[in-house]
Amino acid sequence: MRLVLVPTPIGNLEDVTLRALRALKEADAIAAEDTRRTRTLLDHYGIETPLVRLDQHTLDRAEAIFEKYPHLAYVTDAGTPGISDPGSELAAWVLARGGEVTALPGPTAFVPALVASGLPTARFAFEGFLPKKGRERRERLERIAREDRTVVLYESPHRLKKTLKELAEVLGEDRKVAVARELTKRHEEVFRGTLGEAAERFQNPRGEFVIVLAPAPPKPLDEEALLRRFRDEMGLSGRELFGALLAAGLPKNRAYALALK
Length: 261
Ligand code: SAM
Fold this sequence. Notes:
The protein is of the alpha/beta class.
């Protein structure tokens, strides 16, 4: 059993690699989340490999499909299979049965959104879709509010307005955000501003969206609390107090001034 996860364009049909096209041609069959959408791509590139449907609701057909087509290419609606779609479940299913899984690099929505956002990219957290409601959603939003890495979210057009409003409430209206819309398509745009402005701007959203949130600003150090702990409770003074304040993150001149006081 051999599964090849093949990334497909997220809009622009030119965003497909030569290797992806070859993998689609060489497989015994292509399993696709949405056969109609995949058919457009295959027709565009003249690929005639048999096409079968395999989505979130039909994963129980995987066994029968592999029996008939032991070398299967898998493509999802768009982008990289396994990123917020059934690709990862299928990969785990194949690995659990001793099969071979190969993932090709290629298009995905969150990378261009993150990179075009202008926000820090050195450390980021991909959160995919938020839980839809209830306590789980609330807790996730609160965790995101404290996150010190850039956060990337996927959102559907009919939930975008509500999500931006809730993000503004929990993270604060001033938190910087980028909202990437319809990437690689005709109406591609990247809005960059604050959450307050984004919530105002996307009143009647259409298309596909990625939300990129700036990291939580670093908390200022509470000098009084540090002094209470090191000086009053631990009894440190002079050089020792200076060392402890420095280790806690205070700038050298500030630690020195407080230790002398
Ligand atoms: N596997 C895909 C990937 O690699 O990005 C993601 C699949 S997930 C079911 C679909 C979500 O991806 C959309 O709701 C949207 O948040 C995001 N997305 C996909 N295509 C996009 C595009 N062209 N522009 C902006 N966001 C897109």
